[in-house]
Write a structure and sequence with these properties.
Rossmann fold; globular; alpha/beta; 48% helix; 4-stranded parallel β-sheet
């Protein structure tokens, strides 16, 4: 078993291979874009850049972070690729590593990413002073899947309206899973699953499917509910997409299987299926139909090129299917989502 360092490693992307960080003896800590630090990222990053990335840098510059043994960056988009450069400038002594992430998920991409995971294992072994063993990775996968399955069970109950105010509770559980040591996150999720308020929400509220990228603040979900929306399912990288199970076939090479599991999970807009260019739009339709949603709310961080580039196709596909859509853009603050309240209320009233 790998040496337990009792230290945290920071990360900022849902594609980060958390099981490997844990196998090296570290506790993954997601640097969520929630901070009271002053806006200083503009000194190093362009104003018209993803606020998710800028808020992460604001936390680094404002010392609004726990003690971190290092930062893991995923090359998931152009904005996130710029972040490690700026991070090293403002926190010169920090250990950092950038992992390349393919935008497709075919066999060549799986092989490439498996190589990146092996490289990451080597870096983490150097940092911790102990090699990352295959046995330890497998142990961490089992524990990770226990958390993923618990969160999935909780999400199913919340989506079904079995918990009054459950969407806020679920989002808090996701935040705990993203920032706390694994045993604590498992205990928290299991406790919530077993002791939640089992009170049905009013079925008369219009059912809405929510998708996009960054929306970590529980107050945002309270606003949706206060505006009359019943979120019956969501697809967010700070939500259900964050902790996905890792399933590896018996006899498959460990790193190849881990690569396939990560690349084959529910993807965000930065991933492209060249065999089905419009896959993301069709997936939104399928998810909305599956949960009997009357409408779709699309929430994205401002200046998010991957999502904004896919928006016309998504909007047109939903229009053809007769599914209304409300598009919201935010800057990762509660203030920005609050400014949309009137629009949300009008959209829900239209769904009737």
């Amino acid at each position: 078993m790998g040496r337990q360092t009792n230290e945290s490693l920071g990360y900022g992307c849902a594609y980060t291979p958390l099981v490997m960080l844990r196998a090296a003896g570290y506790d993954p800590y997601r640097v969520l874009p929630l901070t009271d630090s002053h806006d200083q990222a503009g000194l190093h990053l362009h104003d018209n850049l993803c606020p998710h990335v800028k808020k992460i840098l604001d936390r680094a510059m404002g010392n609004d972070l726990p003690v971190l043994a290092g930062m893991i960056f995923m090359n998931s988009c152009d904005a996130m690729r710029r972040l490690p450069d700026a991070w090293r400038k403002v926190r010169e002594g920090d250990r950092t590593v950038l992992v390349d992430l393919p935008v497709i998920a075919d066999e060549s991409a799986v092989r490439f990413f498996a190589g990146e995971l092996r490289r990451l294992a080597g870096v983490l072994g150097e940092w911790s002073g102990s090699p990352v063993s295959d046995d330890r990775v497998k142990e961490c996968i089992q524990e990770h899947n226990r958390l993923a399955d618990t969160l999935s069970g909780l999400a199913s109950k919340v989506n079904a309206g079995a918990y009054k105010g459950g969407r806020n509770t679920l989002q808090k559980a996701y935040a705990v899973a993203a920032t706390k040591p694994l045993p604590e996150a498992i205990r928290y999720a299991e406790d919530v699953l077993s002791s939640g308020l089992k009170e049905k929400l009013s079925g008369s509220l219009p059912a809405v499917f929510l998708f996009g990228n960054i929306l970590p603040d529980t107050e945002a979900f309270a606003l949706f509910e206060a505006s009359g929306a019943r979120i019956v399912d969501e697809d967010l990288c700070t939500g259900s997409r964050l902790i996905q199970p890792v399933r590896i076939e018996d006899g498959e090479d460990l790193y190849t299987g881990l690569s396939r599991a990560i690349l084959g999970r529910i993807s965000c807009a930065r991933t492209f299926n060249h065999a089905r260019p419009g896959e993301i739009a069709q997936t939104v339709v399928e998810r909305a139909r599956a949960c009997d949603a009357k409408g779709v709310i699309f929430h994205t961080a401002k200046f998010c090129d991957p999502y904004l580039a896919r928006l016309p196709s998504i909007r047109e596909t939903l229009r053809k299917e007769g599914i209304p859509i409300l598009v919201l853009e935010g800057d990762c603050t509660t203030r920005s989502i609050g400014q949309h309240r009137t629009r949300i209320e009008a959209f829900i009233e239209m769904l009737g």
